[in-house]
Design goal:
By secondary structure, the protein is of the alpha+beta class. The protein contains 11 helices and 36 strands. It binds (2R,3S,4R,5S)-2-(hydroxymethyl)piperidine-3,4,5-triol. The site of (2R,3S,4R,5S)-2-(hydroxymethyl)piperidine-3,4,5-triol has 11 residues, from loops.
Length: 737
């Protein structure tokens, strides 16, 4: 609910268990009042009588006024949300003042507000596919303007009360005659209560994405960021924040946020002297530049944020439900749950032939796979990574009869067909590059640094975006393709584009635009976002894809840690997880099949092993696991996640995924490393109905235990006291009374 009191000029945004309040002060500035959990029966409104700051500012260093939108101007000495410069004044200027131009000072004052239904942030999906939950949502739009300069800025707040989530974005408009240069632009700044200084975020690298880190914010700034045209491996744009020692996995007040954007981004956490905490999130200030020409508007993407009283677990569950219900598209004719995928990359790499893919497809279908994806190497001159990217036509050297025979066989076997593409890239050794060497990001006269032998296409050029759209469109028109794995295997360097600095946003808009157009034209199509593993995972890309390739690292024990960090923000439904070889190709370590399945079954299960190299007995084991996963996947992909034991603090990872009504659950434990000779404790479960009776079944549907929800939640499930590294188990828990 959005409430405005015209006398006190206070806004109350009331969500299920939290409140966000602002006020227009006596100088018409919009200032933050409070954000936090609210008592269950506290339906009263905040009056705005209690002022969180004593005065405008006690001194420059101790600025305490919490402007909802902090601008460069006035006395700003700390980080700002928006910095703009104006060529001159709208009125004639005395000659003596000319050397002081441009004017870099913005002060925004309240003009008006409105409540609208279903407003959209910038770069919202345009494919037209529905989401699971289509209930309309209220958006508060508060219009502010500079009293002198022709700049208006609307602050937008879209409410999803059930998950205590607000999506926030800015709408800028140049109402004047001369261009305005926007030099810095975050989507929003959040004001957190003093002392909210314990930050949880993830860092990473290729094959080591989503490594959880927890730290105390220093006085000053700490940034997490990525400077490229994709989200990046080094960090991911989400955070959890709480008072040190006052929140835990299932307890305490936790503030959380994430950016719905896949480009160069920054989250900047700022602790002022006096422990005031601010979070600024949006476009990375690095090489940022946006010109608002006369009459032009710019809408930023959304900064998604919320608060809850149920610890880090409660924050994750809210983000998961929000993503499943409000962000992910629902494609036509696709399975309600993510299908079992077979991907042939680790089986054949660049050595693909029609015959070996058909053999793999037959084996995959026999073990229960539902979607067969042909990976890199099927097109142009792409026999290795050195050539072919950009030439999106089927290679007659690999598929002399085209893709039809393979697709026909895959479909005959009852599976859908998927195809790998890397549309933003070009190898210099390609027909596309030979024809258009100017179509890549580069600065004239400067080197073009190749990574993985490839360059990035300049999506600032409309003709490039059109060419790539047409290439993908032809493939989809010609072949029965149900799934695309959209890959992206390098970071940006030498970002020279025909659109100048605007390339950082133009690239993202180009990628989103192509996907949206394809999805609108092929509503049955599903897409996986991949960027050398988990390099493009965020709430922006999830609005137009169905799943993500979590990491190129498929080693079960490495993967369980990656998945734990991933689960802080993103739901299991989108987390593609393959079972690969006994001797892992990335780490060289051996893991039992059970461990590999138990880890992969925590997400959207896929298979990436060389099925042609497995014997009948092994294939039978694969089939049994896949059949088990199919029985539990609606719980894994749609339930509420409880991290019962986290690798971050224990030697094992144990999770429970419970259906929202508490009737069924999946329990999964994986021991990572444990001191031999010590027994592990039992792990109490959560989220069940205390008075209900449950049966605990193993993967052969054998009842291992019958107990009440109360017993399971107070004591736990025996059988995992084994300290062996790699010990793992997945159990299905069913209410029986
Ligand atoms: C990187 C991806 O993460 C892999 O799964 C595979 O598709 C390769 N690219 C292919 O080049």
């Amino acid at each position: 609910m959005i409430h405005f009191n015209p006398e006190s000029r206070t806004f109350n945004l009331i969500l299920q268990s939290s409140v966000y309040a602002m006020q227009v002060d006596n100088k018409d500035r919009l200032v933050h009042v409070v954000w936090g959990p609210r008592p269950a029966d506290g339906n009263e409104l905040l009056s705005g009588r209690i002022r969180p700051f004593p005065s405008d500012h006690a001194s420059f260093e101790f600025q305490t006024r919490r402007d909802e939108l902090l601008t460069f101007g006035d006395t700003s000495v700390h980080e700002v949300t928006l910095k703009a410069s104006f060529a001159t004044l709208p009125d004639p200027l005395p000659d003596s003042d000319a050397p002081h131009l441009p004017i870099r000072d913005v002060r925004l004052r309240y003009i008006s507000h409105e409540v609208v239904t279903d407003a959209e942030p910038g770069l919202a999906p345009a494919h037209g596919l529905p989401t699971v939950n289509r209930e309309p949502r209220e958006t508060l739009r508060i219009k502010l303007a500079d009293p002198v300069q022709p700049l208006t800025v609307s602050l937008c707040y879209r409410l999803t009360p059930a998950q205590d989530i607000i999506e926030r974005w800015l709408e800028l408009e140049n109402t004047g005659e001369t261009p305005i240069e926007i030099e810095q632009l975050f989507f929003a700044t959040l004001h957190l209560p003093n002392g909210t200084t314990e930050l949880t975020s993830v860092s990473g690298a290729w094959a080591q994405e989503f490594q959880t880190q927890r730290e105390r914010l220093p006085v000053g700034r700490r940034v997490i960021e990525h400077r490229s045209v994709q989200t990046g491996h080094l960090a991911n744009p989400f955070f959890l924040l709480n008072r040190p020692g006052q929140a835990w996995e299932e307890h305490g007040t936790v503030y959380f946020g994430a950016l719905a954007y896949s480009g160069s981004w920054q989250l900047s956490f700022e602790q002022l002297p006096g422990t005031d905490v601010r979070v600024h999130g949006g476009y990375h200030p690095f090489d940022f530049g946006l010109t608002l020409t006369a009459g032009a508007r710019h809408k930023t993407p959304a900064f998604v944020y919320g608060v809850c009283d149920e610890g880090w677990g409660g924050a994750s569950r809210r983000l998961h439900t929000f993503t499943r219900e409000r962000i992910l598209p629902v494609p036509q004719n696709a399975l309600a749950e993510r299908p079992i995928l077979y991907n042939s990359w680790e089986a054949t790499y660049f050595g693909i032939t029609e015959q070996n893919q058909i053999e793999l497809a037959r084996k995959a279908a026999a073990i229960g796979v539902e979607l067969f994806c042909l990976d890199d190497g099927w097109f142009g001159g792409r026999r290795f990574e050195v050539a072919g990217l950009g030439d999106w036509t089927v290679s007659p050297d690999v598929f002399p009869n085209g893709l039809e025979p393979l697709i026909a066989e895959v479909n005959r076997l009852g599976m859908a067909f998927g195809l790998w593409v890397e549309p933003e890239m070009v190898n210099p050794d390609s027909d596309l590059y030979r024809a258009h060497p100017d179509w890549v990001l580069h600065f004239p006269g400067r080197p073009r640094t190749e990574a993985r032998c490839q360059l990035i296409l300049d999506f600032g050029r409309a003709e490039v975006v059109e060419t790539i759209f047409n290439a993908l469109d032809s493939l989809l028109a010609q072949y029965n393709i149900a799934f695309i794995k959209w890959d992206m295997n390098r970071s940006a360097s030498e970002p020279g584009s025909v659109v100048g600095k605007a390339i950082w946003q133009a690239h993202v808009a180009g990628v989103y635009g192509i996907i949206d157009r394809l999805r609108a034209k092929y509503p049955h199509l599903t897409i996986e976002s991949c960027s050398g593993g988990g390099g493009r995972i965020d709430l922006g890309i999830l609005g137009r894809t169905d799943q993500v390739w979590t990491s190129d690292n498929t080693d079960a024990l490495d993967r369980v840690r990656i998945q734990e960090g991933f689960s802080l923000a993103y739901p299991a439904r989108v987390m593609e997880a393959w079972v690969t070889h006994e001797k892992n190709h990335q780490t060289g370590r051996f893991h039992e099949l059970g461990t590999r399945f138990d880890v992969a079954m925590r997400g959207a299960l896929g298979i990436g092993a060389s099925l042609n190299a497995l014997d009948e007995a092994e294939l039978k084991e694969y089939a049994a696991y896949i059949a088990f996963y199919k029985r539990i996947r609606y719980i894994v992909q749609g339930g509420d996640l409880y991290r019962l034991e986290r690798l971050e603090e224990a030697e094992a990872s144990t999770i429970l995924v419970v259906l929202p009504d508490g009737s069924e659950a999946v329990y999964s434990t994986v021991v990572h490393s444990h001191k031999l000779g010590q027994f592990r404790r039992l792990v109490p479960l959560r989220g069940l109905i205390p008075s209900a009776t449950y049966e605990v079944l193993d993967r052969f549907e054998k009842v291992r235990l019958t107990a009440t929800g109360y017993e399971l939640m107070v004591q736990g499930i025996p059988g995992d006291e084994d300290g062996r590294s790699g010990h793992s188990r997945t159990l299905h828990i069913k209410r029986v009374d």
